Amino acid sequence: MLNTKSDLAKYSFTMEAAKYVRSLGLTLNDLASPAYIQILNRAEKRVEEAILYGIVSGTWHNDDIEILSFPASMILVKATGDSFLKRRYALAEAKRAYNLLKFEDKEKLIAIAMGTFNWRMRLLNVTIVPQIYDFALHFTDFLRNACVFHEDKWKLVNRVMIGGEIYLSREEAARLLQEEIQRHIQSKLESEGEVDLPFPIQQRAERLGHLLAKHKEEIRIEELPRGTTSVAFPPCIKHLYDVSLVGQHIPHIGRFALTSFLLNVGMSVDDVVKLFSSLSDFDEKMTRYQVEHIAGKRGSRTKYTSPNCDTLRTHGLCLGPDEICRGVRHPLTYYRRKLKTIKLGVGKIREQR
Amino acid sequence: MNKDEVDEFIRNKFAEYYRIQAPNIQPPSAIEKREFGFILFKERMMIRHKSFRNPVDLQQYLVLTVPSDIYFSAAYYERPEESMENKGWIGADLIFDIDADHIETRCKTEHDLWVCQSCGTLGKGRQPEFCPRCGSQKFEERSWLCETCLEAAKTETLKLIDILQSDFGFSADDISVYFSGHRGYHVHIENQIVQTLDQLARKEIVDYVMGTGLNPRLHGLDERGWKKAPIVVGPDLHDPGWRGRIARGVYDFLMNITPEQFENSPDLKRQAVDALIEHRDLILETWGKRGPWDVVKGLGIKTWEKVVAQAIKLQAANVDTVVTTDIHRLIRLPKTLHGKTGLKVTEISVKQLENFDPLSEAVAFNTGMLTVKVIEAHRFRIGNEVYGPYREQILELPTAAAMLLLCKKVANIVR
Predict the structure, then answer these.
(1) For chain A, is the Cβ count within 10 Å smaller at the N or the C terminus?
(2) Would you call B348 helix, strand, or coil by DSSP?
(3) Higher pLDDT, A251 or B90
């Protein structure tokens, strides 16, 4: 159980903390009054830290201020209406929680996992050389959170799983909780419902909006070039591309991988359709429909991203990694990286001349 | 009879079956949330997005329409009859498909045929990418209902069920096993706990049962001690999960491999093969005492990793990766007939799977005889009777055997 105020200050996203805050019966106007200025100050600081450093600090002086500043900062972030900030703030709070949780008592960690997030989890004290395991977690709760990780050790097949339970170290449990906390905060931030905010709160939200705008400019978002160059394709895509150029058969999942990849690196629908025209079962109308579907111009209007390395491996499309593959988990990342090295190479040649 | 007349004949037989059996056809749970799909005899196309409010509506539909194949969605929807985008996905059962098509059996090259749809060229085994004569890519596959292939599929299913029970912790009550009516088995897991898993999570489950992406170093295979002369350690036969499976797989691999197979195993170096053959008995005997990973000098971790890779193949359950990861998949409805065999989709309890005989227990047409002209048929068995091989013969056969040949399009009705 989380039973001290210090616990609630550490983990203000928990059910217990929310209950405590509700019990105080504070209104938005209370929050905006000078008496509570320290809470708003800390709330603004939390968001500021998220924008500037991507993590909320884990040190504070007053438990009550810390506890109340969390819902207050949620109000501020929501008020900016910026989805980029919502994501960044949720991540920053989750990272803070991870740093605290990895050194936390096992009992408290499990209380958060089970109480706030309904994880099916139990305490454990088992050593399977060389690893000490502190928790057993139901595999569905594990999968919901571990799917985004790409290190070998997070793949289900590389875990110790007995009777549906995955064995975890405390650090691993904290890392999985980080994902859950991030989603939890983000979904709260994205939930519907607008309220009229008192002026002092509005003012702070605007200030944060400006800070964000300034910071956003610093983030250089790499745009992919307009022309597509097959030299930078990863081996799996290159193979599918070459095979379709000479009109050989490609399985359905391969066609999807190739099409979605090409569309994502900026190839036009026409060019993709043309590429498939050498296949012997080519039916232009059908192919165009399917390519447009993947491009998000038809049907559900979803533009599909090409499958990641993991998925390609599952379906037997990965040809085995090369040097660049080892550092990436998505064919599109490979493409961007390789392109960069090619560009650097070209630059060097130019310099030499 | 021409092709259409044969189809009509089969359809009448199917109609007879559904007239009597329809009330026994158990619809899936939450029938009103499932999508149904049918293949019709005449049109040979899939009708999708059908839904039924209750079992009786479904049963009446089957009697009236007599489809050649009947499917329902593993998924639950708010509005199953709407188009895909508007269905409102609620969740889906976890399903696995084990099909002989995905398993390499030696006999395949003997009994599976492909026919080029453009020029009619025939070939054995798996269909090629291109027709060697005309270059076309459209083939009709004619796979045979072979006992070896069915046994291979059953073995994979048994491996899968072991993984689902001991590793994933599902109980026998959660797991339903069905013979597909043709060359494989379907495994359904209907438990709320898995229904909302997304595609990514299901992909991880597929990778688990197939051993895809398995890193043996995360399962206890390791080097200890002095760097220049490290000691190899590894998992034990009784370890849980993949650890134990790796150990048991290595054991089986070394136990059963012939020197010729060793020669053919890729990646293994000559020296390593020699050492493994020479010390095989020592490795197997010392297992669990002081062996096996470090009893033979010269067998380093790299070699063991390659042996483990073979072991994983032996222990993994070979399932169709696409079926499990597809959260909108349609799958055959139990007790309905398979259009390619006339056999019925048959439920088998987990306990009885090992002794299940699809060629007796999935027979739907148990009475009467039919006279057919067989064009060409490999040897096959129905019940206790073995038939064939036949070539250009007119025969009187029990209905089930004749229906199999008719459905397989290798026989015609003699009036």
Answers:
(1) C
(2) strand
(3) B90
Determine the pLDDT at residue B266: 66
Asked if A248's CB is within 8 angstroms of B130's CB, the reply is: yes
pLDDT band at B205 (very low <50, low <70, confident <90, very high): very high
Structure tokens belonging to residue B165: 């029970």
Rounded to whole angstroms, the Cα distance separating B382 from B369 reads: 13
Which amino acid makes up residue B144?
W
What is the structure's pLDDT at A300?
67
Of B93, B97, B174, B294, the active-site residue reads B97
Catalytic residue among B69, B93, B99, B174: B99
Q: What is the predicted pLDDT for the residue at B78?
A: 97
DSSP sequence for A309-341: HHHHHHTT------TTGGG-SSHHHHHHHHHHH
What element of type H or E holds B50? strand B46-50
Using a CB–CB cutoff of 8 Å, tell me whether A288 touches chain B: no
pLDDT surpasses 70 at A353: no
CA distance A129 to chain B (A): 8
How many CB atoms lie under 10 A from the CB of residue B245? 26
Window A:42-61, CB contacts with B under 8 Å:
none
pLDDT in tens, B130-144: 888 888 888 887 778
Q: Is A165 on the interface with B (CB under 8 A)?
A: yes
CA B74, distance to chain mean position in Å, is 17
ipTM, interface predicted TM-score of the complex:
0.91
Q: Check if the beta carbon of residue B129 is closer than 8 Å to that of residue A248.
A: yes
Query: Does B193 lie at the interface with A, CB-CB under 8 angstroms?
Result: yes
pLDDT tens digits, B66-91 = 999 999 999 999 999 999 989 999 99
Among B137, B194, B242, whose Cβ lies nearest the Cβ of A249? B137
pLDDT tens profile B343-386: 999 999 999 999 999 999 999 999 999 999 999 898 999 999 99
* B213/A155 touch (CB, cutoff 8 Å), yes or no: yes
Between chains, do B130 and A280 touch, taking CB under 8 Å as contact?
A: yes
Our CA-based measurement puts residue A142 at a distance from the nearest CA of chain B, in whole angstroms, of 9
CB of A293 within 8 Å of a chain B CB? The answer is no
Q: Give the chain A residue nearest B117 (alpha carbons).
A: A281
* B382 three-class SS: strand
Asked whether residue B267 carries a pLDDT value surpassing 90, the answer given is no
Question: Is A249 close to B218, i.e. CB distance below 8 A?
Answer: no
The tokens for B142 are 């004619």
pLDDT at B165 over 60: yes
The number of beta carbons lying within 10 Å of the beta carbon of residue A340 is: 12
Q: What is the pLDDT of residues A211-236, one digit of tens each?
A: 988 877 554 333 334 456 778 899 99
The three-state secondary structure class of A218 is helix
The answer on pLDDT for A41 being more than 90 is: yes
Longest distance between any two alpha carbons in chain A, whole Å: 77
**What's the N-to-C CA distance of chain B in angstroms?**
8
Instruction: State how far residue B336 is from chain A, nearest Cα, in angstroms.
Output: 28
